[in-house]
Amino acid sequence: MRLRHIDLIEGRAPSPSGGCSTRYGSVALDTGPGITRLAQQVIAHVVSRRRARAMKDKFYGLPATNLADRCGLDPADLIVPVTENGEGRWSFGHGRAQFLTGELQ
User: From which domain of life does this come (predicted)?
Assistant: First the structure.
């Protein structure tokens, strides 16, 4: 199970996010690798269970490629922070941890 939270720069069409977006001001500056940011940034914050390194590498590459091909987004403008969260740390409602109770697998 993944939770996605996608932020777009104001005025950017919601199509890269599938129509789900939160619009507010954000600042994303270079943190050292020399990446030049443009005004079309997309920040896709993902909450997920722990994944193997190979899966993470593939996961980061796919949206960069897909958004470049489908929406013309420069891969330098895609920021993807991932927060790892174990199965026992999810509640999808009713005050229960459904992975722990067996309601979800």
Answer: Bacteria
If one counts every other C-beta atom within 10 angstroms of the C-beta of residue 8, the result is 22
> Each residue of 30-44: pLDDT tens digit?
667 778 777 778 888
CA neighbours closer than 13 Å in the CB half-sphere of residue 85:
17
CATH code of residue 50: 3.30.429.10
**24, part of any domain:** no
pLDDT attached to residue 13: 60
Mean pLDDT taken over the chain: 79
Whole domain around residue 75: which residue ranges?
A: 1-9+38-104
